[in-house]
Amino acid sequence: MKIKNIIFNNFNLKISAFFVALLTWILITGKERTYLEETIDVNVEYFNVSNNIDVKNINPEKVRVKVKGISTEMKKIDLKDFRLKIDLKGTNQSMKLNKFTRDYLEYPVNVNVVSVYPQWIEITIEEFFIKEVPVKVKYTGMFENGIKLIKRSVRPEKVKIYGYKSQIKDIDMVYTAESIDLSKIDKTTTFKLSLEKKVEILKFKDSEEVEVTIAVKNRNVKSRSK
Predict the structure, then answer these.
(1) 128-225 has which CATH code?
(2) So what CATH class is 34-118?
(3) What is the pTM of this model?
(4) Which of 5, 87, 101, 115 registers the highest number of CB atoms within 10 A of its CB?
(5) Residue ranges of the chain assigned to CATH 2.170.120.40
(6) CA atoms within 13 A on the CB side of 35
């Protein structure tokens, strides 16, 4: 009887307290379990780049990531918690790479990734290349009567060009930027000429100019001295 009295004593008050506690628990639990979604733009990064390559293009440079999680956890996340890093170790020649975005996405463990756009990242890799090619001197006009060419020399005869392999592999020679007018030469003369830099050539490795010596014999001077 005593146990029964304990249970049923102030029964209505106890029931009310129970339901108040239950309602409070439901409200707290429901609040904790509220889910939020957020969209974040993540920069595409890369590392372990070989010295002989250039990452010419990344498409896109950012990816859009939609994440979902419990509201209390979502409020703790920071943009710095999301990274997209692609390892280019071992890539040492010109090519196009297609990388599946999710494979390289780093994000907090307490959130779920709903979607990633785009699904693929395209990376264009260009290999740097050095090639030695001969120099071609440009000439205009002709020697005047009585002027005979003895010797012509170009130093250096070959130069090294530097650029993307895909762009310079078919360049077989380089030209001087200026021409030598043969009609104005009446004695042995040395010219310093700049090299013509095509857009495909990023730079000349050793020298951007050549020295051209035109050695001639002037018969006209001899005849006048007589």
Answers:
(1) 2.170.120.40
(2) mainly beta
(3) 0.68
(4) 101
(5) 128-225
(6) 9
